[in-house]
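Protein in question reproduced for absentees:

***
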Amino acid sequence: MSEWGNFLSAMTLVLVRVGGMVIFAPFFSSTSLPARAKAVFVGAVAFLLAPLVAALPGTQATLGFSAILGELAVGLVYGLSLTLLNEMLLFAGQIAGLQFSFSLVNLLDPQSAIQTPLLGDLFQLMGTLVLITAGLDRILLASVVRSFRTVPLGTYALTPPAALAIVRAAGGIFLAALELAAPVLAATLLVELAVALLGKLSPQLPVMALTVPLKTLTGFAILAGSLALWPRFVEARFAGLLDMAERLIAAPGFGG
């Protein structure tokens, strides 16, 4: 009977850790996935991992407020760190949308349930496609599974330095978004300069009517050409954020 109780305690703690990751992590947190499917997935993972992680050295599979809070913190460290990738893609889409003169074209984002720019949604969809195609969702899940060896059940405690590190990492969203949108920004800026010079040379030409269509066509052409670089860019940012999450969890100063 005690073994059954230990199994249920371990399964509950594993469920909390994996569930905390699923709440915010890219792809897993998508509202396109039914809530029931997510619940079944988290429950199945917890059921399969519970007997394995409960036998690891240092495991404290005892239900309690601090243990549940610690497991939730581990999942949130993963989820909040990786969700910065979605925010970077959204911001890059907003920057490109301004250059495409699409700043007034907004759609209801199913992920956040708020009005977001058209290209922001497009960039997030393409980023999710890269994530799934490259198998980054499986890499994230494997990292969460390995975290049970690094931080056994019931032993983690989120501290202010860990939360502050995630907030500081959010400051890199602006630079990463600029890097992703840089080809479009450079191309559309050159188009604006060329149209301005043409207006100076031939004032009788309706250059103002040419600016928007030329910028849009050039921007789309450059964007289509730069898609070949997207997998490497997204994978590099994903790897960096995942490494940060693993360091925050494994660092002695952040765990309990």
